Amino acid sequence: MKALIKAFIWIAWISSAIAVAFVILGTIQGFFGRLAHGTEIIKYFHVANSFFLLAIVSLLFLHLGQHKQE
């Protein structure tokens, strides 16, 4: 069980880091224009939103699981 909890914590941290990277890329694109052909600024924020949601769900799963064990 501890391995599962540790895995969810890693997933949450990695997802958050990836989301922050995409937010930074979207912000840079907002200031300087397109970074790559065929990309729109909104795509970066959609991807970041997905990774933030994955991190939130992982942390909620851990939080709710700890209350069940008590």
Description of the molecule:
This protein has one domain. It is 86% helix and 0% strand. It is built from 2 helices and no strands. The two termini are 15 Å apart.
Report on the biggest sheet.
none
Shape: elongated
Radius of gyration: 16 Å
| First-to-last CA distance | 15 Å
Number of individual domains: 1
The number of distinct helices, counting runs of at least 4 residues, comes to 2
Task: Determine the fraction of residues in helical runs and give it as a percent range.
Answer: over 70%
Please count the beta strands (DSSP E, at least 2 residues each). Answer: 0
- Uncertain stretches: none
Structural class: mainly alpha
N-to-C order of helices and strands: HH
Mean pLDDT: 81
Percent of residues in β-strands = under 5%
Short key terms for the protein model shown above:
70 residues; mainly alpha; 86% helix
Topology of this structure?
Elements: H1 2-32, H2 41-69
Short description:
This protein is mainly α. The chain is 86% helix and 0% strand.
